[in-house]
Each structure stands twice: as C-alpha cells, then as structure tokens.
User: Fold this.
Amino acid sequence: MFTAKEIAYLNLQRVGRLATVDSKGHPHVVPTGFRLDANNGTLQIGAADTPGRGQKRLYLTHMRANPYVAFVIDDVVTQPQWAPRGVSVRGRAQIHPDGGQQLGPGFGPLWTEIVPESISSWGLDTGTYDPPHFRKVAGND
Assistant:
C-alpha cells in the first residue's frame, strides 16, 4: 500500500496535520503525532491520557459525525537546495476505545486508526517538482 520510500519517510516523521469535517460540513485541521503501522498499512493517532476538551478532542467528535479524513505529513529539505516532500492520505478513521497506551507514554486507551483509500506523495518517489505520485488503495474503492 505504501511504497518503501514512503514507509522510510513516515518512520522518520512524528507530526502530521489531521483534517476533519464537522456535521455541518465545516473543515478543521489539527497537528497531531502519529505512528505508521506498516504491517496493516494504516496510520495510528493516540489521545493524551488527560480528560478535557480542546482541539484534539474536537477531531474525535468530527470523526464520529463523518469518518472521512485527510492526513498530511510533510517537510522541506533545505540542503543542497530547497525541496518540499511529503505524503497525503485520505481515508476512513476508525476510533478504538482500547489499546492506545501501546502508542507510547502519556497516551490513554482511546486511539484512532486511519485506513487509507488514497495516497499521494511528492519529493519521495518523484522529483521535487514533478506531479505527485497519486494512487487509490486496492480494496477501498
């Protein structure tokens, strides 16, 4: 599902931006940590083990209303020249009530898994300014 270069890149990154839409169609973007589960081809996002509302709790409310999300991980290499690169994933979010502690210290039981329906990358499998490498994920049409 992810190419070898995308997997290598995602394993080096720690933060991405999660885009959700509320029940009225209003978009919302929040930066959040993530982990790649290369075996399942999914992205995993934990929720901090602290009660309360805030930006990260808001995206959970949005995903319950509309489970389709986008997640972007990108950066810029500046040497020897300026070169943007990244991966964009669109898919369905699945909220899991248990097991989030496995994602790392400070995480509570609640976690989210993003199952890709399409993946786009640039600057990894393509030249810096070539069109992105876009593909739909088999089985998720």
The longest helix spans residues 55-65. The chain has a mean pLDDT of 88. DSSP finds two helices and eight strands in the chain.
